[in-house]
Specification:
The chain is of the alpha/beta class. The chain contains ten helices and nine strands. The protein has one domain: Alpha-Beta Complex (Spore Coat Polysaccharide Biosynthesis Protein SpsA, Chain A).
């Protein structure tokens, strides 16, 4: 059986479409929707809509705990309730186009046993292939370099220029394509030891058995996959990217509901990214000092409260 964890926040139509898309897939599955305390009450609406649906569970988080902790809640619930062979964590704006998606995951695992697996993720907005994000994992040096870059980006003038670019879909699409081309990543080639894109990631049973809350709990949003790759690499885990499976990513659609302007959205992104980078730096320094940091969540609501 395969568990699908879908994090929900306000954008109810995207969550409904995502659920319908997953339900149409071949194979045994269970969908776990985690409402991250949506202020518009859509979590309760979803719980009522799917009441009695044996393929869907709706969990109501008591607070908006962000990407890592929200998904950890759903992954742990799935492990305890269903003990799935695989756990697919995906954004509610992801569309799976292969009806045999689940059997393809099994085929890949049988040939190349993995801890984490990433599909080819195609952005509907820009047409770029978003995974792998990078071919090389992070280091303390690269984290600090990224922190300096984000700090410079928070300059009000640079923020306004960036927002102007994002306000024009044509310019923003061109900028994304240009940046991706500079990475020189061939997404048609399967690879191991890479940083996957977080909009859709698959965990094997063997990984979730050891890490029922896989995402580093001290981030709210952004940089989760970089930290996860570092943790997995440190433990000798295997991360695989395989274009034999693919999804479409309808990015930016849901985020437009949350922010009144592109500038406010950019400010939010920079703040969350800087917080995540500081968390990554702290984690690496603790490990370097020989300390054992708490890398997993310990304050997720009890399953009895779900």
């Amino acid at each position: 059986m395969t568990a699908f964890v879908v994090l929900h926040y306000r954008a109810i139509d995207y969550t409904r479409k995502c659920v319908d898309n997953i339900k149409a897939l071949e194979g045994e599955k269970h969908i776990i929707i985690v409402d991250n305390a949506s202020p518009d009450g859509t979590g309760a609406l979803l719980r009522e809509e799917y009441k009695g649906d044996r393929e869907v569970s709706v969990l109501l988080n008591k607070e908006n705990s962000g990407f890592a902790r929200g998904n950890n809640y759903g992954v742990r619930y799935g492990k305890c309730k269903f003990s799935p062979d695989f756990t697919v964590v995906l954004n509610n704006d992801v569309e799976i186009t292969q009806r045999d998606f689940i059997s393809k995951i099994h085929d890949i695992y049988n040939s190349h046993p993995f801890d984490l697996l990433g599909p080819d993720i195609v952005s509907v907005f820009s047409g770029i292939h978003q995974s792998p994000k990078t071919l090389k994992g992070i280091s303390l040096e690269s984290v600090r370099k990224k922190m300096a870059y984000v700090k410079r980006s928070q300059n009000p003038i640079l923020m306004l220029l960036s927002s102007g670019e994002k306000n024009s879909p044509a310019l923003w699409r061109r900028a994304q394509r240009r940046r991706r081309a500079k990475q020189n990543i061939d997404s048609a080639v399967a690879r191991e030891g890479v940083v996957l894109h977080g909009s859709c990631v698959i965990f094997s049973r063997r990984y979730i058995e050891e890490h029922p809350e896989p995402f580093y709990c001290k981030t709210f949003m952004y940089y989760e996959m970089e930290i996860l790759e570092w943790l997995c690499r440190r433990e000798g885990g295997l991360i695989r990217y395989d274009p034999a499976i693919s999804v479409l990513h309808h990015q930016y659609m849901a985020s437009k509901m949350e922010f009144s302007s592109i500038l406010k959205q950019s400010q939010f992104v920079c703040k969350c990214l800087m917080d995540s980078l500081r968390a990554a730096e702290e984690l690496m320094l603790m490990v370097e000092a020989g300390k054992m940091p708490e890398t997993r969540e310990s304050k997720i609501p009890a399953l009895a409260e779900a």
